[in-house]
Design a protein that fits this description.
Order of helices and strands of chain B: EEEHEEEHHHEHEHE
Oligomer: heterodimer
Strand content of chain A: under 5%
Radius of gyration of chain A: 25 Å
Radius of gyration of chain B: 17 Å
Strand content of chain B: 15-25%
Largest sheet of chain A: 2 strands, antiparallel
Shape of chain B: globular
Distance between the termini of chain B: 31 Å
Number of strands of chain B: 9
Number of helices of chain B: 6
Chain lengths: 570, 213
């Protein structure tokens, strides 16, 4: 009987499972079938291990795996360490009125552009910055470097994947930093630091032994999302990573796209391996963290109070702002290229400017822009509606965000995209969804929904229930309460969640590429494919547009409530 | 061993000083009570003495502990213990590890350190609680652990900011007795911010009343 009384709750759960969970699982399933030889489209119907044999014979597999692991773990660790250091800086209350202290209120706003810009835009900008003929080289040539022509150095797409690591750190540092700052609100940081100080512990020591052990469980899932992305990114690897052999994810995509369809099977095997690699990496990461925590506890029992690894703070204090500056410069260089007419090496700035490319854009919206906006609006709107529906149903019919539910929401972000997107495409074909906008929007929804849901849930739960109780006592129906009170009070968080959804959708590369069957181009797919070409001005425009649309969405999300309030006061 | 405040004033960002210049002294083993209306700056005074003020505050005058000026020392070098209204036991550590965290570094060796912690637990009538989760302790038990944690660090002075305010009347009496017993044992100057006249009577020490300027 309970089941039927609470039917909306189960209906909502069913909708979510069908729209979010099942596609991921089905996609993984199809990939697994293909990896083990079952791909009806190619006429393969029987279980076989030949795909794996082919995979191991493909060149450079070991190097690809090594590259993926190194770039994944290195970038995630560096971004995490810097983010934690950044948190310690924000919470420090030094008495010296230094320049750094004055910069504190600006820290968060400076992070916003890098956060809003899609991964591909930042990667392209960084490439334009670091390349042998990039802005950094131009700024310092020829007076410092004596280069009259771009040197033959592999600063981007280097064999060690370092520029890829740098690009990943630039993008993930602000994300982890902001997430950690929000999570720290649940911990009494300043009082616990005061107590630690009074017991003789230096600030750094207190952060290691007291604050960080409490913080890490709160940011565990976002950190894992970062790790999985770093291991499986394709768009950043295309622009910044080495070409041959590439990271495993990029190699897999190349095999999928190869003209030789027979490669689809080993490609699926590679995709499945990437999935398994991801599981192994997550386990390895968590075990390492547990070991570190256990060691920290042992050190806590010993009671040493000094500043551990003092030399590290100097290094961290220089690295953190450098990464942020590189990130901002990456976006600036895109802006400069977009209005350049002529910029030859080694001039520090363009010799002539022109708005030609922008004017052409305004006179005729490129298809890519239209598609990007349609996809973003579609997926974020559905995501917001689903999130609101689920939260409202939970409010009315009971239910809470258990740990299991949280992992389920995070699931699409914890599985490498390439591991299941091809399989999903096959699955879509089975149900008749043949690579149209609908399929791509659904694919985007898988990744937009978790971010929208997670950014909304805290504000939703924090809403003072007494507003609704007062409204009910005044005779408002529950639908009226929801529509007129709840949604109005939550307008700001709703718009912000929508803006985040827009940003996530704009930045999607693989879903648009794979689901659209090459027919649907977005700003991101165009930017990435143009990035290897010669016309940096056009790429600059696309890259900047990529970053501008999310910023516009955030701007609207922040301004709209204020405008509405102003209107009301009149 | 004594704690002396000499013409001490604390000023929030470019405003009027919170109270008139204070000159006050607490001797070893004495418990001085600090009283005053809400908002006058009692907590701020304690934070100033402990070194926990943030950069929005400025201090004039001197704080001298055992003939050593404290004003230029950072909080982690002053060796002045502090207890806030909430016990603030670190939730990720067990009760025993919380105490071990406070235990002075001068006690060396795992066995010795464990011994000291167990002794502290016995003094707090919490023998056998080493592996307990702080969240499972009652308010009074947590307060006792918090006090022992502060004392295990062998501080040269102790500041208590209404540490028993959230406990009920009977518990407050028990905690007061516990504090007095520990104070007799450790013989350091203690400053206690309180609203309770009963605390003043029991402490039998100097009384500092803050007036707003």
């Amino acid at each position: 009987m309970m089941f039927f009384r609470n039917w909306p709750k189960w209906a909502m759960l069913a909708i979510l499972v069908m729209s979010i969970l099942i596609p991921v699982v089905a996609g993984l399933g199809e990939t697994t079938w293909a990896a083990f030889g079952i791909l009806p489209a190619l006429g393969k119907h029987s279980f076989s291990l030949e795909a794996w044999q082919q995979l191991f014979e493909l060149p450079g597999l070991a190097t690809s795996v090594r590259l993926s692991l190194v770039s994944g773990f290195l970038s995630t660790s560096v971004a995490l360490i810097l983010a934690l250091f950044g948190c310690a800086w924000v919470h420090s209350s030094s008495h010296r009125p230094s320049l750094l202290n004055k910069l504190k209120p600006f820290a968060t706003p400076l992070l916003v552009p890098i956060l809003a810009a899609p991964h591909a835009a930042v990667a392209i900008g960084l490439a334009f910055l670091l390349a042998p003929s990039g802005w950094l080289a131009r700024l310092f040539s020829p007076w410092l470097t004596t280069w009259q022509l771009p040197p033959d150095l592999a600063t981007v797409q280097d064999l060690w994947g370092l520029s890829l690591v740098l690009g990943l750190v630039i993008k993930e540092l602000p994300f982890l930093w902001l997430i950690s700052l929000v999570a720290l609100k649940q911990i009494e940081v300043s009082k616990q630091l005061s107590i630690s100080h009074s017991l003789g512990y230096s600030t750094a020591n207190a952060w290691y032994k007291v604050i960080i052990p409490q913080l890490y469980p709160l940011i565990r899932l976002p950190v894992l999302v970062v790790l999985v992305y770093a291991l499986s990114t394709v768009d950043m690897a295309v622009i910044l990573g080495p070409n041959s052999p590439p990271t495993l994810a990029l190699a897999t995509m190349r095999w999928y796209n190869d003209a030789n369809v027979a490669l689809l099977l080993p490609a699926s095997a590679a995709a499945l391996s990437l999935g398994l690699l991801m599981i192994a990496s997550v386990l390895f990461w968590e075990i390492t963290i547990k070991v570190i925590m256990a060691m920290t506890k042992m050190m806590t029992r010993i009671g040493g109070r000094g500043h551990p690894w003092k030399f590290a703070s100097g290094a961290l204090a220089t690295t953190l702002p450098s990464i942020l500056i590189l990130g901002l410069l990456s976006l600036v260089v895109l802006a400069i290229w977009s209005v350049t007419w002529r910029w030859s090496f080694p001039d520090a700035l363009p010799t002539s400017y022109s708005y030609a490319y922008w004017l052409k854009l305004i006179s005729k919206w490129p298809l890519a822009l239209q598609h990007s906006i349609t996809l973003a609006l579609g997926s974020s709107a559905i995501a917001v509606v689903l999130s609101v529906a689920w939260l409202e149903v939970q409010d009315r019919y009971g239910g809470h965000l258990s740990r299991l539910t949280l992992w389920l929401i995070y699931l699409p972000l914890l599985v490498p995209q390439i591991a299941f997107l091809y399989g999903l495409k096959v699955g879509f074909l089975r149900i008749g969804l043949n690579g149209g906008m609908g399929a791509v929007i659904w694919a985007h929804l898988l990744f937009v929904f978790p971010y929208v849901m997670l950014s909304l849930v805290d504000s939703w739960r924090a809403l003072d229930q007494r507003y609704l109780q007062v409204a009910a006592s005044l005779g408002t129906s529950s639908w009226g309460c929801f529509w007129r009170i709840k949604l109005s009070l939550l307008l700001q968080p709703l718009l912000l969640a929508w803006a985040i959804g827009m940003a996530v959708s704009i930045g999607q590369y693989l879903p648009t590429l794979m689901m659209g069957a090459g027919k649907i181009e977005s700003l991101t797919t165009e930017a990435v494919s143009l990035a290897s070409g010669a016309d940096r001005r056009l790429v600059g425009v696309y890259g900047l547009l990529q970053a501008a649309v999310p910023l516009l969405a955030y701007g609207m999300a922040l301004l709209l409530p204020k405008l509405i309030r102003l209107n009301r006061l009149k | 061993m004594s704690l002396q405040l000499i013409n001490l004033t604390v000023t929030a960002q470019q405003q009027v000083p919170l109270f008139a210049p204070l000159t006050f002294s607490v001797g070893a083993g004495e418990i001085a009570c600090v009283m005053g209306p809400s908002g006058v700056g009692k907590s701020t005074l304690l934070n100033a003495i402990g070194g926990h003020l943030n950069r929005h505050f400025s201090i004039k005058g001197d704080i001298v502990l055992n003939h050593q000026s404290m004003t230029l020392l950072p909080a982690d070098e002053r060796q002045i213990g502090v207890l806030f209204q909430d016990p603030l036991l670190f939730p990720h550590l067990t009760v025993g590890d919380n105490l071990a965290f406070g235990l002075s570094h001068s006690v060396v060796g795992a066995k010795q350190r464990r011994l000291h912690v167990e002794q502290a637990l016995e003094q707090a009538q919490l023998a056998g609680f080493y592996h307990r989760d702080p969240a499972t302790l009652s308010g009074g038990q947590q307060s006792r652990v918090a006090l022992m944690r502060a004392l295990l660090a062998k501080p040269k002075a102790l500041l208590l900011d209404e540490p028993f305010a959230k406990l009920d009347l009977e518990l407050r009496h028990t905690m007061r007795e516990f504090l007095l017993a520990q104070a007799k044992q450790y013989l350091i100057p203690i400053l206690l911010v309180t609203h309770e006249p009963a605390d003043v009577a029991a402490a039998k020490g100097p009384l500092l009343v803050l007036h707003p300027t």
